[in-house]
Every structure is written in structure tokens, then in C-alpha cells.
Design brief:
five-stranded mixed sheet; 234 residues; seven-stranded mixed sheet
Length: 234
């Protein structure tokens, strides 16, 4: 209705959670991650930054004992359409649980939401929550992503009957990817911003080693897009 529109800024997946699976789900990457997860020992899994819990659902259906988690209440709510298991609200930097796991996952470049100073505390915390011989598996953006989005990428369309715009722009100086989602909803225009830091592989490996891990890195996990990091608790 004319005169009723307003503009709102939100964060922490407050609105994007509703559209996440339809707009951002990457089934091809899920297959790549599963190839590596299936090679790991153990069945007790903690997934950090689970989002809508699609991976948690897959692993639970395959017989893994999965605990999903995320910092976003909106994503936990959205996960109910996929996952009916345990889902915790926690910060992956400093969570404290009274149990340990064979495998801890952090997929979909969720690690890139941290800054450099948060990496080592997060790695140490994960190490403390792994069983001996357990594995921490995560992926992160390749440095090539900064080149890919040096010029702004803009996608427009409709998702779940809602018009949207999705823009990605690299800040090569700060080594960041800045994403903007705009949803044209009945009640007005809603905008959500996300900033991800892109890390140098050597820096990440140094911090993983400092946390106590034995480290293996797959630089071409997804060519020019993602790097896979595996750390085993000694």
C-alpha cells in the first residue's frame, strides 16, 4: 500500500534464515564434504555453524550421532524443516560442553566469519572438545575469491515468492568479502549485511599447529573457491 513501505537493516541471519535453503544451498559442495567425512574415524559429531542443518540431517540419517549448533536463533528455527536432533545455540569461539567428539565440523566457509585474532582461541577450544585422534574438518574461502569479486557481483530474482537482490564485493585491502541481501517484502524492504574475512593459508596452518593439531590442507578442494583444512588431535 502506498506510504506503508519502510526500510529495515537486520543481521545474524534474522531474515536470510527463511530463504537460506532455497537461495544458498550448495548440493554439489555437500558431496565433496561427505567424501572426506566418510574417511574419518568415529561417529560422534559436533557441527559448528550448522545453519539450517542440512549436513546434520544427512549425517544423522547415515547413522552418525550428531549435535548441531549455531549462534543464530533464526537459523535454529529454520533448521526444524531439516533436522530433528539436538541443536545448541553457542558461539564457536568459546563454547564449553561437558563432552567430547570424534569429529567436529565447520563447513560452508563459516570460519570466515571470524577475524584473525579469533582463530587461535577457536582452534584451541575445538581441540579441547575432540577425543584423542579426533578430527576437526573445515573449509574456508580461497584467496582467489577476492579476485573473483573485485568487481561487484549482483544477482536479482525471486525466492519463495519474494523478490531479492544479492550483491558480493571484495575489499582487497581488508581481505574481506562483503555480502548484501535485500528482500522486497510485503511490509517493506529488508536489508541484511554479512562480512567474511579471507585468510592466508599459511596463517591458518600456523594457528592450527599452535593449537596442537596435526594439519593437512587441500588447497584445491573446490578449485579457485574453497580450501579444506583437516586437523587431527595428537
Amino acid at each position: 500500500m502506498e506510504g506503508s513501505w519502510h526500510f529495515k537493516d537486520v543481521d545474524n541471519y534474522e531474515v536470510l534464515a527463511k530463504y537460506y535453503d532455497a537461495l544458498l544451498q550448495d548440493e554439489g559442495s555437500l558431496k565433496y564434504w561427505l567424501e572426506y567425512i566418510h574417511q574419518l574415524k568415529g561417529k560422534d559429531v559436533l557441527e559448528l555453524a550448522s545453519g539450517s542443518a542440512v549436513m546434520a540431517k544427512i549425517l544423522k540419517n547415515e547413522g552418525y550421532n550428531v549435535v548441531a549448533s549455531d549462534i543464530s536463533e533464526a537459523m535454529k528455527k529454520a533448521s526444524k524443516r531439516n533436522f530433528d536432533g539436538e541443536y545448541l545455540i553457542l558461539n564457536m569461539i568459546d563454547f564449553k560442553l561437558d563432552r567430547s567428539f570424534d569429529i567436529i565440523l565447520c563447513i560452508c566457509d563459516s570460519i570466515n566469519y571470524l577475524n584473525e585474532d579469533e582463530l587461535l582461541p577457536m582452534f584451541k577450544n575445538v581441540y579441547e572438545h575432540l577425543n584423542s585422534g579426533g578430527t576437526f574438518l573445515f573449509d574456508m574461502h580461497s584467496m582467489m575469491r577476492l579476485e573473483e569479486f573485485k568487481d561487484e557481483y549482483i544477482e536479482e530474482g525471486q525466492v519463495l515468492d519474494t523478490n531479492y537482490q544479492w550483491a558480493i564485493l571484495a575489499d582487497t585491502y581488508q581481505k574481506q568479502l562483503q555480502e548484501r541481501f535485500i528482500f522486497y517484502m510485503d511490509e517493506g524492504i529488508v536489508q541484511e549485511h554479512h562480512v567474511q574475512n579471507v585468510f592466508d593459508i599459511k596463517l591458518v596452518k600456523e594457528k592450527m599447529l599452535a593449537a596442537g593439531f596435526e594439519v593437512e590442507i587441500v588447497e584445491d578442494f573446490i578449485e579457485d573457491e574453497k580450501v579444506l583444512v583437516m586437523g587431527v588431535k595428537r
